[in-house]
Specification:
CATH class of the largest domain: Alpha Beta
CATH architecture of the largest domain: 3-Layer(aba) Sandwich
Number of domains: 3
Number of helices: 13
Radius of gyration: 27 Å
Shape: globular
Strand order of the largest sheet: 15-3-16-17-20
Length: about 500
């Protein structure tokens, strides 16, 4: 073929492609329900950087400047306290630093929603006692991510140690804060996920599950008269914060054992205590208080049938404890499906003062026009918590930015802010606080900036934070929480009304 003909052919191909690009729809052509045909369009040709990622450098840098003392000084300047001693950094940059804190939002700006937990924290700080905070969430907090740093900061501020409530059998292979092993004969009965539909009750406990070392439903056999032995061991993790490595008491929450069982506790392979536990038809508690903080423990159960084990708490005697309760793939709409009487009895024993509810991310991939259904669902979950644990405060931690791939770029899911608004509306209607994680991390198209940061602050699924990113976002939430606490405490010290 002659060179001129080759040139004309190539030019013709480019002209045809250009013509297609001019008229090809931006959103692509749907081939099947989940399959679209995409082609570069005129906007791809004539517009540069059509998708802009959020600049998060200022957010990250200002977050590094904030600590407990700086936040206290920021509160003092806002409240115009004459006895405030502020750092030069605060004096020079008070407004900028204050704006960098994504504040907790309240229905009708009513900060009294948190006064109950703040009262408890104040008592703990100056008089002792225990304050329990339960952090519920989806895979964003799995393995104690986010929770670990929130716990560490609160325990440093108000005292305390220990990892808090853990299940008898861990669902996930790794937890940042504690090393847990158990015998092979433990079975986990979850409400969410692989649910056993043969169960004739809904006594699932705080983890929306319970564990047993004999089957929950058994046929009568000759082996029924023989004893079964099961064990659980806890050891300090080399990765955890120092205050999480020890605990001063162990509490086992169990119930509904038809037969007595032997319960033994071993420390450093030496038997510390043993007792025969009587049958029960309600939630009960076994408790050991140690004369010095412990960093390892082994609990052994022996019996012909197993009680329902709802959780094991490794707590301090005084201070703050924060439980991590993660459910991968969950939208947070399961509380109303748990036996309310059972849950109320266990929460009463645990004396929970604050619930952190971090859900919504698993709703985003299911794109619909209206999320009113989810708002109603989530409202009912918060009201259920308030009914089974009266007096406890609730903060909803909103979902993060999440990206979907659009051609060669990543953009925020088009429905994400609708889900965010549904969560916020549900929180406000139920009288709960709301912390906007989406806003805190930079808002629209911010997740790619976290993924492409050095080091990466989010992983390449464009949904989950990396360990470094989880710590940063957890610190942001802690800053917001501490800002409100310091405002509360400043009010007590000055006798002035809190400004809205």
């Amino acid at each position: 073929m002659k060179p001129l003909r080759i040139l004309l052919f190539v030019v013709s191909v480019f002209l045809v492609l250009f013509a297609i690009a001019l008229y090809f729809p931006e959103e692509g052509i749907v081939l099947t329900g989940n399959l679209k045909l995409h082609f570069f369009t005129a906007s791809d040709i004539f517009r540069k950087n059509a998708v802009q990622y959020a600049d998060i450098s200022g957010i990250i840098n200002r977050n590094k400047l904030l600590n407990d003392s700086v936040i206290s000084a920021l509160v003092a300047t806002a409240e115009e306290s004459d006895d405030m001693v502020a750092f030069d950094t605060v004096r020079a940059n008070a407004d900028s630093l204050r704006r960098s804190i994504t504040r907790i939002e309240f229905p009708e700006n009513d900060r009294a929603i948190l006064f109950g937990v703040f009262d408890a924290l104040n008592r703990v700080r100056y008089k002792g006692g225990l304050v329990r905070i339960m952090h519920y969430g989806d895979s964003q907090i799995e393995g104690d991510r986010m929770t670990a740093l929130i716990r560490n900061r609160l325990q440093k501020k108000f005292g305390g140690h220990g990892v808090g409530l853990v299940p008898a059998s861990q669902l996930y292979d790794f937890s940042f804060s504690i090393l847990q092993e158990s015998s092979d004969n433990w079975s986990r009965y979850p409400l969410y996920g692989n649910r056993d539909t043969t169960l004739q009750h809904s006594r699932y406990g705080p983890f929306a599950s319970f564990c047993m070392f004999t089957p929950a439903i058994r046929e009568k056999t000759a082996e029924e008269s023989s004893n079964h032995i099961a064990w659980i061991s806890f050891r300090k993790s080399p990765y955890s914060y120092s205050n999480t490595k020890t605990f001063s008491q162990c509490r086992i929450f169990y119930g509904y054992n038809k037969e007595p069982f032997l319960n033994e506790v071993f420390i450093n392979n030496q038997r510390y205590d043993a007792d025969i536990i009587s049958p029960s038809t309600k939630p009960e508690e076994i408790r050991w208080i140690f004369n010095e903080p412990r960093d390892e423990l082994r609990v052994v159960f022996t019996g012909r049938s197993s009680p329902e084990i709802y959780g094991i708490a490794l707590d301090p005697l005084n201070g703050v404890v924060v439980d991590n309760i993660a459910m991968r793939g969950c939208a947070g709409n399961y509380f109303t499906s748990i036996d309310a009487g059972n849950l109320k009895a266990i929460f009463k024993k645990l004396e929970v003062k604050l619930f952190l509810l971090q859900f919504g991310g698993n709703v985003v991939p299911h794109v619909v026009e209206d999320y009113g259904y989810y708002e109603k669902w989530f409202y009912r979950q918060i009201m259920c918590i308030r009914e089974v644990c009266p007096g406890a405060s609730v903060i909803v931690i909103g979902l993060s930015d999440m990206s979907v791939k659009k051609k060669n770029r990543f953009v925020t899911y088009p429905n994400l802010e609708k889900v965010r608004n549904a969560l916020k509306n549900a929180a406000f209607e139920a009288g709960a606080g709301y912390w906007d994680m989406y806003k805190a991390m930079g808002g629209y198209n911010s997740m790619p900036s976290w993924v492409f940061a050095e080091p990466p602050l989010a992983v390449k699924d464009f949904v989950h934070f990396s360990p470094e990113g989880a710590d940063i976002i957890a610190q942001m939430f802690y800053n917001a929480f501490l800002y409100e606490y310091d405002r509360y405490e400043n009010h007590l010290l000055t006798g002035q009304m809190l400004r809205k």
